[in-house]
Specification:
The chain is mainly alpha-helical and about 220 residues long. Helices cover about 65% and strands about 0% of the residues. The two termini are about 25 Å apart.
Length: about 220
């Protein structure tokens, strides 16, 4: 249990209501040094794959992204972290399929893609059906499709972030002071950081954050 780590972390505001990060990157990393080695290694590996806004949608092919997820899922992970990685993988693959439909591209030719999820065969068979007929299983698909059609990148990102934010909040509530609460905090913090960085109106807050970062360096 991580009573000391959780207790030392300031509460995160919901990302759309935040004005600034409540804890600087340096301070957060200092808190994470208290993790047990096995948990620190799991979190580091997961963060390298699950970062909210790396180049994943532009520099990564669907196949390479899938390979990264497969490698991570084959590693030794806590049950809750494994579940979150699986959740993100499904989301990424479903979003990739929506993008291909939106761009008028057909289904993947690579058979590895079709073995990625149990219902991938269903998607291929229902490629021309809206949301692949899976909106009952993934209720977030229609709104994601509408954002893609409207070219609403911010709306799509907010929609996906909200899904992940709520998933992580539930995990943290169910696993208070456990490793799951720690990784949930870290991934929510990374979403918040990326959200603030994409909003020009938050420039002043980011400037203050940079000042705090300098202060942290001096204090370290």
């Amino acid at each position: 249990m991580y009573y000391d780590v959780i207790s030392s972390l300031p509460q995160l505001p919901y990302f759309t209501r935040a004005e600034r990060l409540p804890i600087t990157p340096l301070r957060l990393e200092q808190r994470l040094r208290r993790l047990r080695p096995e948990h620190a290694a799991q979190l580091e590996h997961a963060r390298s794959v699950l970062r909210w806004r790396p180049e994943r949608l532009t520099a990564h092919s669907d196949e390479s992204l899938l390979a990264e997820y497969a490698q991570l899922l084959n590693a030794e992970l806590s049950t809750q972290l494994h579940e979150y990685v699986s959740f993100r993988r499904i989301q990424q693959i479903m979003l990739a399929a929506l993008r291909r439909v939106h761009d008028g591209v057909g289904p993947w030719e690579n058979t590895r893609m079709w073995s990625a999820l149990p219902h991938m065969y269903h998607i291929r068979q229902h490629w021309d059906v809206q949301d692949f007929g899976l909106e009952y299983l993934y209720p977030w698909l229609p709104q994601a499709r509408e954002c893609l059609a409207a070219g609403d990148a911010i709306g799509l990102e907010q929609h996906l972030m909200d899904l992940n934010w709520r998933w992580l909040s539930r995990t943290a509530e169910q696993q208070m002071f456990a490793f799951a609460a720690v990784f949930a905090y870290v991934f929510q913090w990374e979403m918040l950081k990326d959200w603030l960085q994409c909003d020009a109106s938050q420039a002043k807050a980011r400037f203050t954050e940079l000042i705090d970062k300098v202060t942290d360096v001096k204090d370290s």
